[in-house]
Here is the input.
Amino acid sequence: MAKAKTAKAERSVEQTKPVKTAKQFQNNGKPFVMIMAGGSGTRLWPLSRISRPKQLIHIASQKTLIEEAVDRARLLTSNDRIYIGTNKELAIQIQKIVKLDKKQYLLEPAQRNTAPIIAYFLSFLKKNGADDQSGVVILAADHHIAPKEAWVETVKLALKRAGERIWCMGIKPTRAETGYGYIEKGIEIAPRLSAIASFREKPDYQTASHYQTTERHFWNSGMFIFSIARMREDLRIYQSAMLKLADDCAQNPKMFPKSFLKMENISIDYAILEKTKKVGLVEADFLWDDVGSFDAMARIYPADETGNYVIEGNVICERAKGNIVKSKMTVALLGIENCVIIEDKGVLLVAKREALQEIKELRAKADKKLL
Here is the structure.
């Protein structure tokens, strides 16, 4: 019985592949939203596993990160204009918790970074009758954002000028972060909107420290706003082969896997944003975190009266502070500081917080059944 149920679930997801449909979109002013949900979140192991990646875990609420992302999208547009870019295996799990029509799942046959799925999304929309001037919002499934109202206001600010530029949402740095890309602000176009002078990918600590002190540098959040026409024009100029393959995917659904796999494995940043002059910065006015490591827990959750961050579990401590704890067991801390204690499904992680950058190397040594 279990095998039959699994087979049925997989057949159900197969039906979410692109299908030839009639023109379906009306120009009602509502933007289209795609939430990219194909990542794995290896730096959150053992909470994040292959079968339960970062976007499917609970971080700051009773909802998973992907549910929170969809809830935010619903504040911008109608349910029928929200799409999720992912793979077949994750779609099976996401469909259990996110109530969208199956056709709103865009399934990648293999990971090709962000440019191919964005190009295909635009071709899919155009094939189905979307107006060229329609706004498009690209989101990630694994961000923590608060308050939602400020995020909506920022997106709408960029949507008003979506035909002019591809707007990158920038976050003012609150620390010297070497794991993020940075955007340098250029000439101001309007309040909180400007041209972009340069991009910088993952600088060293000294450079990141300098960026924190300027008024010109912002974290690249990976959220983008543009019109269909604006991005397709830049794809035509800078990635013509990719655009042709994306159009082939939309026009010939049976050829979708083969055509998609021919696209270059490249991010939208390198493929378009760092080449086009029609790019801009919209300055965010809300709290943001990409929840990239366990250190994010200390930024999202307040410390308790002992100075520790208890995400889950009962903690007793003596001369211990700055520790991040998530466990169903009672955890006793004595004389330790700035450690991470995470217990989940048969794995107990104990690490110094400054060593968290090495968690991928540690994870690689684990038995496959623990991944």
User: Anything to note?
Assistant: The longest strand covers residues 217-227. The chain has two domains: 2-289, 295-370. Residues 1-22 have pLDDT under 50 and may be disordered. Residues 295-370 form one domain.
